[in-house]
């Protein structure tokens, strides 16, 4: 009881200190040190910058994307290690469904923040949920400005992800132009150390066509040139007006050259799909302790055959990447009536 009362008194004292510290005339010695024992702060240990973790996760769990790995590692490290970057880092991820765009943004958050995707400094927007109605674009603009400014005031190393950019109202992205441009400060706040990432299916068809062209030349993915993909992504994103007035059509962040890298996510081959299946199977604690020695390889081949592939006559690239694999694997295990222990 005595210990519980002491904790309560300490928390009450801390709340009082927080209120007092809101007034500029009141300066409390060591306030930030005390506060950061209880709340997430924009400093170590809450900021990780764990590049080794990022590289390991990319190598272990992202398949068939050498351009993504090389571009992400160099751009993130280069940006965060600069004492005074000239602008916020802006990356635009493009590719079909299930090839790893959302996954990469999540593991990046896990590598940069102690609390990962649950960090107060990580913001994830989904166009069809957060910005679904064109007629509300003015409301969305004000909300977006407020959220970005509040987050960066809390931490200059904030990280913003915008998913389904191909479904965002045309013109909404231009709202963030000020925050990602070459501005030293805006209203006394420095946005240049923040990170913005866009995710979309824009130009996925063009990416797949160039990938197929390279594949027919027997060119390994490791030898693909980023600039070739970036050129076609920029043209497709800027010139194509999406359905229902959505997308990056004539966006000022494109013609203002504010996106640092347009990163292509390539379609996944059957061999990559099999790696996804194996990784998903590892999430199950099979009662048969020899499962991965005796049955796994056969099951992986069988599950891979349940996926659909393109193009016609070649059937090499998965039409849905690895997106359907968790459901297919779960149904396969039930169909086979494998015994699964509750805990791994």
Strand order of the largest sheet: 2-3-4-1-5
Relative helix content: 40-55%
Radius of gyration: 23 Å
- Percent strand equals 5-15%
Average pLDDT across residues? 91
Secondary structure tally, helices: 15
Low-confidence parts, pLDDT < 50 over ≥5 residues?
Answer: none
Q: What's the helix-strand series?
A: HHHHEHEHHEHEHHHEHEHHEEHE
Number of beta-strand segments: 9
First and last CA, distance: 37 Å
Main sheet characteristics: 5 strands, parallel
Structural class: alpha/beta
What would you say this structure looks like, in words?
The protein is α/β, with parallel strands linked by helices. 46% of the residues lie in helices and 10% in strands. The protein contains 15 helices and 9 strands. Strands 2-3-4-1-5 form a 5-stranded parallel β-sheet. The protein has a two-stranded antiparallel ribbon with strand order 6-9. It has a two-stranded antiparallel ribbon with strand order 7-8. A hairpin with a 6-residue loop joins strand 7 (309-310) and strand 8. Helix 9 runs antiparallel to helix 10 and helix 12 (270-281) crosses helix 14 (296-304). It is globular, with a radius of gyration of 23 Å.
């Amino acid at each position: 009881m005595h210990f519980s009362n002491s904790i309560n008194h300490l928390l009450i004292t801390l709340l009082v200190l927080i209120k007092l510290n809101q007034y500029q005339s009141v300066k409390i010695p060591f306030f930030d040190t005390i506060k950061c024992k209880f709340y997430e702060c924009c400093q170590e240990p809450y900021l990780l910058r764990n590049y080794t973790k990022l590289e390991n996760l990319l190598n272990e769990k992202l398949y068939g994307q050498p351009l993504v790995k090389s571009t992400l590692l160099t751009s993130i490290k280069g940006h965060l290690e600069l004492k005074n970057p000239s602008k916020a880092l802006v990356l635009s991820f493009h590719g079909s469904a299930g090839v790893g765009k959302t996954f990469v943004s999540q593991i990046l958050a896990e590598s940069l923040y102690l609390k990962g995707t649950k960090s107060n400094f990580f913001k994830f927007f989904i166009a069809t949920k957060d910005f679904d109605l064109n007629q509300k674009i003015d409301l969305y603009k004000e909300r977006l400005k407020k959220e970005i400014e509040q987050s960066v005031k809390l931490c200059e190393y904030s990280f913003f992800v915008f998913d389904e950019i191909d479904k965002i109202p045309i013109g909404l992205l231009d709202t963030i132009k000020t925050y990602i441009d070459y501005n030293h400060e805006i209203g006394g706040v420095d946005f240049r150390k923040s990170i913005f990432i866009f995710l979309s299916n824009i130009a996925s068809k063009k990416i797949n066509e160039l990938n197929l062209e390279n594949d027919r030349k027997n060119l390994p993915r490791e030898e693909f040139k980023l600039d070739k993909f970036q050129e076609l992504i920029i043209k497709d994103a800027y010139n194509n007006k999406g359905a229902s007035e959505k997308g990056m059509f004539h966006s000022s962040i494109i013609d203002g050259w504010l996106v640092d890298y347009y990163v292509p996510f390539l379609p996944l081959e059957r061999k990559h799909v099999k790696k996804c299946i194996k990784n998903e199977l590892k999430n199950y604690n099979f009662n048969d302790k020899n499962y991965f020695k005796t049955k796994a390889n056969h099951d992986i081949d069988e599950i891979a055959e349940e996926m659909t592939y393109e193009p016609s006559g070649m059937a090499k690239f998965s039409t849905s990447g690895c997106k359907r694999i968790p459901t297919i694997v779960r149904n396969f295990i039930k169909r086979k009536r494998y015994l699964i222990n509750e805990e791994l």
